[in-house]
Write a structure and sequence with these properties.
- The complex is a heterodimer of chains A (470) and B (104).
- Chain A has 470 residues and is an all-alpha fold.
- Chain A has 21 helices and two strands.
- In chain A, helix 4 packs antiparallel against helix 12.
- The longest helix of chain A is centred in the middle third of the chain and has 32 residues.
- Chain A is globular.
- Chain B is mostly helical and 104 residues long.
- The relative contact order of chain B is 0.13.
- The chains are: A mainly alpha (470), B mainly alpha (104).
């Protein structure tokens, strides 16, 4: 293989690595103001996002340990876009922060880990990527060093993620014992449904479910989301969840295809549980971050329904929905992070009569919530519609029916927030917020994404053409 | 060479795994919880080495995996201890029962 091919196949990882080194050198060099640093970093992240689109090539490296396809390149581009948007949005919070560069180093390291995880063709590579993407996140969750809640959240995150990776590892070790290989493609041949293999597969699945916070492995989610700084929460709920879901779909559909009759009922039951529990707990939240945490748990339930469809539509609808979820969740988090950074308020009751002082932010938040709830013509409606259609292909209409009914419950709590913003009275609403240029750009991109991804049919067709079947 | 059958080694490693899990669920001191997690990871190491030696001695995948697990467990412990120290600074305790601000 030529050296050029090597660089082209690894280009997205290499770009991130170069940015990491640049940040280290900037840190060592002369002191710069946060403002100039933020401009440099955001430009770098934008270039990183753009660079993802050129010179795509499919292939394998390192004896099948690393593989890349056009679909994987697209998934990495979605993650690149998400991290750029998060970086733009956290401008107001980072502008005065002392440890700005460390924050970006932690986040980009996790992103690098996710890239390797998505591209992994081997259980060892997968495990390394997974750990590389969770350990620095725990440090990032503790980024507000002097807040009691922040350290509590980081403690919960590191203990539960270490426990989940221990479960995952035990599963991998038994799988190795029964099959004698760690490579995904060879593993498929050796899967015969022996009891030990099923046990190890269940352990592996629970490791996955921990990371995507499906019920009953969701207990850490809300606490960590509430305690961590808003930028980290947005990152956890969008980027890290999306990365694991990408791997989950491809691993289930290709490597564990012989065990489909085992994971199908597991996915059905857990998806319903996830949607119902996520919805019921979201009803009674007052903290905005906690509210979004439970709403994101419910969204994962819908994604699991799409995965259970096990078809090309399944893959395509999951990736399409995640793209929409990136836009809508980041729009909501963008508004919350602005308000939290400038006023310190994070409760839904603080948002009463928000419209009287901040009409623009109110509209953006409303559009984002409508998209999360799935109101047409926002993209969220089309995303959920495709997920349910993909799930319905199996003919399990009770599952689809209950999921659709749960969308009604979710309307209640999303609209409760909208009502608080537009209709409730408040003696002292949040003061008028002057939106800095960078967060404004990020919010406009998110709104454009929410509106256009649903209406421009090319997006779904493109994802569908790249997706692999079952 | 190997008089000990594989099943005995697997019994030890499985017992170790569940002892670790039991410790994680019952202990309230964060350092002890961290030790329990290390116990679980080490049982996985035993599994890998045993499987590699007894069943697939022709290649070394299992041994390599063990080396990576040890390295990552060290990294995990480093971050976890840093977090615990910070928790001690803010809460004056490393008991999980005292860190109860985030609930429901």
């Amino acid at each position: 293989m030529m050296l050029v091919d090597f660089f082209i196949l690894l280009k997205q990882e290499l770009v991130i690595t170069v940015i990491l080194f640049l940040l280290l050198f900037i840190k060592l060099g002369k002191d710069r103001t946060n403002e100039s640093l933020l401009i440099i970093i955001n430009v770098l992240l934008f270039l990183n996002f753009v660079a993802g689109f050129c010179c795509c090539q499919e292939g394998m490296l390192f004896n099948e340990m690393f593989r890349t396809t056009n679909l994987i390149v697209l998934e990495k581009n979605i993650l690149n876009l998400a991290i750029w948007l998060i970086s733009l949005q956290s401008y107001a919070w980072l502008k005065t922060h002392k440890h700005l560069i460390e924050f970006y180093i932690l986040l980009l390291t996790t992103l690098l880990g996710m890239f390797f995880m998505i591209s992994s063709g081997n259980l060892l590579m997968f495990y390394l990527g997974l750990e590389m993407s969770t350990i620095p996140l725990a440090a990032a969750a503790n980024f507000d060093l002097f807040k009691r809640q922040s350290s509590e959240a980081a403690m919960k995150l590191i203990i539960s993620s270490a426990f989940s990776s221990a479960l995952l590892l035990f599963g991998i070790s038994l799988l190795y014992g029964t099959s004698g290989t760690l490579t995904f493609s060879e593993l498929t041949i050796h899967l015969n449904g022996a009891p030990l293999q099923i046990f190890s597969f269940i352990l592996l699945l629970s490791g996955f479910f921990f990371k995507i916070s499906a019920v009953p492995f969701h207990l850490w989610t809300a606490d960590v989301y509430e305690g961590a700084p808003v930028a980290v929460t947005a990152y956890l709920s969008v980027v890290s969840k999306a990365a694991v879901l990408f791997v989950f779909v491809s691993v289930l559909y290709t490597t564990f295809k012989p065990l489909a009759n085992i994971w199908y009922p597991v996915l059905c039951i857990l998806s319903l549980l996830t949607i119902i529990v996520g919805n019921l707990f979201a009803l009674r939240q007052n903290n905005f971050k906690r509210f979004l945490a439970f709403s994101s748990i419910a969204q994962v339930g819908f994604i699991l329904i799409g995965i259970s469809g096990s078809s090309q539509e399944g893959t395509a609808s999951v990736i399409y929905f995640i793209l929409i979820y990136v836009f809508s969740n980041l729009a909501a988090f963008g508004v919350v992070s602005l308000v939290s950074a400038l006023t310190g308020k994070e409760n839904i009751s603080d948002f009463k009569a928000f419209y009287t002082t901040n009409p623009l932010l109110s509209w953006i938040l409303t559009i984002a919530l409508f998209s999360l709830a799935g109101v047409p013509p926002t993209a969220g409606f089309f995303g959920k519609f495709f997920l349910l259609i993909a799930g319905a292909a199996k003919g399990n209409y009770i599952l689809i029916g209950v999921a659709a009914l749960n969308m009604v419950i979710s309307f209640y709590y999303y609209l409760r927030v909208v009502k608080a913003i537009f209709m409730d009275d408040n003696a002292e609403p949040i003061a008028k917020i002057k939106i800095p240029a960078m967060p404004k750009l990020a919010l406009y991109i998110c709104v454009a994404g929410i509106v256009l991804t649903g209406l421009v049919s090319y997006v779904y067709d493109y994802i569908y053409s790249l997706s692999t079947g079952f | 060479m190997s008089d000990v059958p594989l099943s005995h080694i697997l019994f030890v490693s499985t017992a170790l795994f569940f002892i670790g899990m039991y410790g994680l669920f019952t202990r309230r001191n964060l350092i002890t919880m961290l030790m329990s997690i290390e116990l679980m990871l080490n049982s996985v190491n035993i599994n890998f080495v045993a499987f590699n030696k007894y069943l697939f001695p022709q290649n070394l995948e299992g041994i390599f995996f063990t080396i990576f697990i040890i390295t990552i467990a060290a990294a995990e412990a480093a971050i976890a201890i840093a977090i615990i120290i910070n928790l001690y600074r803010s809460h004056q305790s490393i008991d999980v029962e005292d860190a109860t601000e985030l609930k429901f």
